[in-house]
Design a protein that fits this description.
alpha/beta; 255 residues; two-stranded antiparallel sheet; Stationary-phase Survival Protein Sure Homolog, Chain: A; homodimer
């Protein structure tokens, strides 16, 4: 029965026309019923942003036997929320966001619209993951990352994920040597702006930068795995409480 | 010497003209040298979003003896990044984001632009906190929340915070009974859209909703504290790795 097929919600932050999302749908199409609900244009760096000052709209732009496609004028999180609140008639079994053009390893999990969408699926208690390929170009080769997406989708459908945990999957270029389970590399972006001038000669700033890795020798970190040719899977928690620091903070006697 | 004065960077997500940020500056003015670097308009729900598709600009709009004021066309995180990368000549001793008009307790920490800015300060290894008042109105009374901001600013300046941990402070309306150190309440937003129509009769969706609390009896949670008249302080980690789940995930034998 069609009701028994897993329902898989797919979104991304590069927009519905990106090669990454097309490759992802292609790789997963026979696993269940697919609904694509993706932004109309790229929303990179949108984190878990929601649109509060503008009305959201969506429309169906394609329908195939096992797949229905919608495009929306919101952020990746808006896409997940709108699909789950207003469009789908049952809770998906899996939310996948990607395949992103560019790494979301290390601290980038915080800024990533791809991971914002995966985290949103997780907030809805749906097993969810984001997947990114370390190649920003629009014609990147998604062959290997699509295979990994398929593998992880099958595993997550079979085993589920604990409530409040989703996965951040990053894949190097070329054929990965394997898949490592890692932690989020500690570090930050540096040299973050390219200064320019607008047509009237006024200073403007464009975001750019390099990732500064603070634990370059940690072979349990996602950056280490990627640098050494492995795909990296980081389990990500949506409870951001620093429980370890609570006893110390209580000693501050704030009240 | 003026070099010895603590440098305090202040931002928010309600925009530089919001009553909350004006109240915050007023409460902290004699604690050190203040730099305000805030968005030109409200950026609620912006999470840790960064602006990638538009040029950023900023300009100074006021200068007083101990305080310099800048306005920027970016998100709260853009404001912190731009101030730290391009404007300030030394690392601040403290980053404070707020006082937000409206609660950022529970899962709202994920969507909050206020907390996005505090998390950004933390990524830069600067002791940082976000502070929010549970009152969305533009003329909210910030008397008590400004006192709490002052108290916590003094404590954080004196004691510091562990690397990778910032604080999410939420204050109820009226005079708080005290301050509780709590965890982030588990739950999610529900009934998230108000459906409307545009002038041409097409469906549009506006974000709204109610917080559904999944641990209503947990008196160590921030929602419990606020509901019972206390301010809540949650220590927030920027390492989102779910370390507890790594051993189980390794058993999946992904590669």
């Amino acid at each position: 029965m069609s009701k028994e097929k897993p329902l898989i919600l797919i979104t991304n932050d590069d927009g519905y026309q990106a090669k990454g999302i097309v490759s992802l749908v292609e790789a997963l199409k026979d696993l269940g019923e697919i609904v694509v609900f993706a932004p109309d244009w790229h929303r990179s760096g949108m984190s878990s942003a929601i649109t509060t000052s503008q009305a959201l709209r969506y429309q169906q732009y394609n329908k195939e036997e096992n797949a229905t496609y919608y495009v929306c004028n919101g952020t990746p999180v808006d896409c997940v929320k709108l699909a789950l609140n207003e469009v789908l008639d049952r809770q998906p079994n899996l939310v996948i966001s990607g395949i992103n053009h560019g790494s979301n390893a290390g601290i980038s999990v915080i800024y990533s619209g791809t991971m914002g969408a995966a985290i949103e699926g997780c907030i809805f208690k749906i097993p969810s993951f984001g997947i990114s390929l370390c190649d920003y170009t629009s014609d990147a080769d998604f062959t290997h990352s699509a295979k990994i997406a398929r593998l992880i989708a099958e595993k997550v459908l079979a085993k589920g994920l604990p409530q409040g945990v989703c996965l951040n999957v990053n894949v190097p270029t070329g054929e990965p040597k394997g898949i490592k389970i890692t932690s989020q590399t500690q570090g930050k972006w540096v040299n973050e702006y390219q200064k320019g001038q607008d047509g009237a000669g006024r200073d403007v700033y464009w975001i750019t930068g390099n990732f500064e890795n603070w634990e370059i020798d940690n072979d349990n970190s996602d950056e280490w795995a990627l640098t050494n040719g492995y795909a990296a899977v980081v389990p990500v928690k949506i409870d951001m409480t620093a429980y370890d620091f609570i006893p110390e903070l209580k000693k501050w006697n704030l009240a």
